[in-house]
Amino acid sequence: MLDVRKLSKAFAGFVAVDAVSLAVETRQTTAVIGPNGAGKSTFFNLITGHLRPDSGQVLLDGRDITGTPPHRICRLGIGRSFQRTNIFTRLSVLENVQAALLAHRGRGHDFWSRSERFYRDEAEELLGSIGLAHQADSTAGTLAYGNQKQLELGIALASDPQVLLLDEPTAGMSATETREAMKLLERIAGERGLTLIFTEHDMEVVFSIAEKIAVLHQGRVLAKGTPAEVRADAEVRRVYLGERP
Amino acid sequence: MAASFLFSQFVGGLTTAMFLFLIASGLSLVFGVMRVVNFAHGTFYMLGAYLAWQAVQWLSPTGENFWPAALLAALGIAVLGAVVERLLLRHLYGREELYQLLFTYALVLILGDAAKFIWGTGQLSVTRPPVLAASLHLFGAEVPLYNLFIMILGPLIALGGWLVLNRSGAGRLVRAASYDREMLDALGANVGTIYTGMFVVSAFLAGLSGALVTPIESVVPGMDVEIIVQAFIVVVIGGLGSFWGTFWGSVIYGQVLSFGILIFPGFSLFSVFALMAVILIIRPWGLFGRPIR
Amino acid sequence: MNRVALGRSIPWTLVVFLIAVWVPALGSRYDTFLGTQIAIDALFVVSLNLLLGTTGLVSFGHAAYFGIGAYACGILMKTYGVPFVIAFPAAALIAAFFALIFGFFCVRLSALYFAMLTLAFAQIVWAICFKWNAVTGGDEGLPNIPYPKLDWISSLPGLGDLSIADEFYLLTILMVALSFAILRQVIRSPFGRMLTTIRDNPERAAFIGLNVRAYELAAFVVAGGFAGLAGALYGIFNRGAFADYVFWSKSAEVLIMTILGGINYFWGPPVGAFALVWLNQEITSYTQYWPFVLGVVLLVLLFGFPGGIVGGLVAGYERLRRMLRPRHA
């Protein structure tokens, strides 16, 4: 599905991502973990076109998408959520999702229709599936933090992605909220047949839902494999899981 | 074409350039550190000129006390800058840039009219300080000593400014601030004090250049808008927030203006606008600026 | 919190138009004069607000397109004798064309740099208008732009004999009303919705699949075109096109009108235009220090009412409604 080959990026001499390769199969759930500054966010930004890699390739279904601008990447079927909550704060919840649907279906050039008439049912259905139906008319900026995160997921889903990149989807959430959010994610990924790639601090979450884990450390891949393999890796235990041999 | 003509054009351009540098550097400094485009910077310049004229009248109208009068005027404008920043501008930092922009524009309107109210709309002039009243003959052209003084003062202030920015602790903080505001917070620096300091230094420079221009140009309403547009072109050419960009931007501006007369007689400003347009198209962030998107 | 639905269903453009039609019949010649000025400025500010309030772009050089419209219409009508029905839309197209060229460079930059670049281009336009004597009349301007043929208005049933100023007023409010209807529709369209997503969050907007710069440029061109229409009307109204129309103070003035009325509402900026034009007329009969008064108004606005007049009224209305409505458990 998504095949990242030897991706590298340096900022002013500091190598943030160093020849990282990662192959992800369809419908697989992959976690990218690593300490702060390991290069996780940069890695995501390289895949989604927010940054241009110095070298390496990103292949989606065998097609080279390296260096394609973000709005095209989005259209090719990669959705993403951001670490900082990224919604349209002054629009209503429904309008947020409607806007994403309009953009994705290439309706944005339409000068002559009324925007609120488009995809209402679809938007409401989508809000229902992420549990925000009752908030449809609220202004997005006034939602509680957890709900804003849900809405962000809704916006990403509106683009009908095959691959979904989530940068710390549970950052700032309580333990209960985190469990809820991950349950929602698993359900939606299952229903829609999504390929998920996410970064996460909470190891409990990671080891419970990831089918594959890649450990980044100082911009390099320290280890990758199934949760069991990663858990058993001596290097990972030493550097990351904080155990002494 | 006579060499003396070319030389006097060159000197004229350089004098203009050094004045513009004094003014534009303050504008650029405030933008670089505070991300505020201060439209009132030209008004500070004009008020500096009016204050200098006023101080000369008080001290002695014959001109021997020009230097203390100029310093007094510059200090007066520095105080005005402190008041404006502490009492008003400060409250707008958290808001969108539009509000800061319009705030400085409100100052242009209010202070400009206040100056008209106090000093009227006539032309006021100040005689050249006696020490520099003479002229020098160079390559067949007559160069007033006062212009020579300005041409030396400009680079000196540029060098001094560069040394402060690059060699002192305060300068490091200022540069850090122009790169990344969060970094400044992380350094634990007192951002409020730095902002006030920058605004005051910038106002002082504007006031000083206003005072220093009085022996060459008469003081009239409208000189604020005229100068801010020019300073603005300089920083756009050199790159907003870039110190050396402002210096070279001024030099280029002055020379293009001087020699543009040969291409567009009667409207040399056009050659400057043409230059600006070309630079904007090739490097929208200016010759020495950093691209920010 | 539910968003204000206040007056959503009322076709305000039609209502205001139907009221404004009566000004020549019921008001003085001076009222008609003021009305024409307000209507033209209202169109100018609404075009600016497509950038400011809808797309979140601060243009400090919007007067450029207003001025280009005025010169284009004036030159076509006066120098080449082109009739108004052609010169008027042509003015919009020419202004939009310049907006396309300048905008192409401006949208490459963000926030303050965008504002500065729009201002720089406007000053370039000003310099050209000011000095290109052969075409624009230079600092003399382009005086004596002819009135369009408007006899047909007086021959409409029920209107009777109108002065040329009254006829031009009626033409102006008709053009402005039509423009409002179009712009209102554009803002409500999917295209307008995309612009609001860019205003709220350009980064996210790119990642729902929008080419942000292309949309910004499109908004810039539309705004420039309608500013050109306003300028074309203003040139005829003022019997000439002058370099002042393009100067930065004009750009600042429309910005002030726009936020004075309130950028978050379609009808905010026209209210601001109304307030400022009226205030200007009142003040200038007492004192020559209009800039001073304008500056003070601006300060009060910035520190006291950042939401503008309409923003303040809506907030007041909301508070009143909440106070009057019995609390539900």
Task: Explain this structure.
The complex is a heterotrimer of chains A (245), B (293) and C (329). Chain A has 245 residues and is an alpha/beta fold. Chain A has 2 domains: 1-77 and 161-245, P-loop containing nucleotide triphosphate hydrolases (Rossmann fold); 87-160, no CATH class. Chain A is 36% helix and 24% strand. Chain A has a 6-stranded mixed beta sheet with strand order 6-7-8-3-9-10, with helices on both faces. In chain A, β7 (163-167), α6 and β8 (195-199) form a beta-alpha-beta unit. In chain A, α3 (93-104) crosses α4 and α3 (93-104) packs parallel to α5. Chain A starts with a strand and ends in a 6-residue tail after the last helix. The mean pLDDT of chain A is 86. Chain B is an all-alpha fold and 293 residues long. Chain B has one domain (3-224). Chain B has 11 helices and 2 strands; from the N terminus they run ααααββααααααα. Chain B has a two-stranded antiparallel sheet. In chain B, a hairpin with a 2-residue loop joins β1 and β2 (141-144). The termini of chain B are far apart. The model of chain C has no long low-confidence stretch (mean pLDDT 88). Chain C has one domain. Helices cover 73% and strands 1% of the residues of chain C. The B-C interface holds B 31, 35, 37, 88, 91-92, 95, 97-99, 101-103, 105-110, 112-114, 116-117, 225, 229, 232-233, 236, 240, 267, 269-270, 273, 276-277, 280-281, 284-285, 292-293 and C 52, 58, 60, 105, 108-113, 115-117, 119-121, 123-124, 127-128, 131, 248-249, 252, 255-256, 259, 289, 291-292, 294-296, 298-299, 302-303, 306.
